[in-house]
Amino acid sequence: MLILPETHARPVGAPSVARADRAPGGGTAEHLALAHAAVARHGTERSALLPVLQELAAAGAIDDGAMQLLAARFALPPVEIQGVVTFYAFLSAPPARHRVRLCRTISCELAGAAAVAERLAGTAARAAASGGSVAVEEVHCIGLCDQAPAMLLDDAAYGHLTPQSAAAAVSVAVARDLDPVGEHAAEGEPAVGGEPAAEGEPAAVGATDAPGEAP
Known about the structure:
By secondary structure, this protein is α+β, with helices and mostly antiparallel strands. Helix content is about 40%, strand content about 10%. Strand 3 and strand 4 (about 155-160) form a beta hairpin.
């Protein structure tokens, strides 16, 4: 029996990478420059790949060229870089002013995540109609299984959500963008897109802010 040497699997047609400074898959010069800079900051250890990709995702700079460059710099098959990007929803989502990552693991599903997701979809649509920018992503886990259902709003974690509290948290964040001085934030007034303002404000998990201040 013929035994072939072990190699990394690569789908038919997947481009190979010969040089770190070339992007056979395409990509803009700006994205390549950002990828170079991110790698310079984080290094090329395997553990640095996700932080590099997160930095590029925040800048909307993950394209074929950037992934090819990272494959060369990290000495990984291009398909593995692409696999990481497509596995983590927050890496492949379009850039937005606010990013909501709603957990859809079994613990959150049993606690009512589906109803929260439905309400957030409407909130995001109303925010967009009002001039806001919200991306709602459903992710596998955010490490808050004991506080299900849970979500991340930008960098703040919210647990024990209801559809109303999740929508209010997003609405408050968008309202601050559209009305930074708070002229229309009086208690009882509707927030963005007709969402009712919550009494006080929804508190983020572990928040240490004084009452009435932003989480």
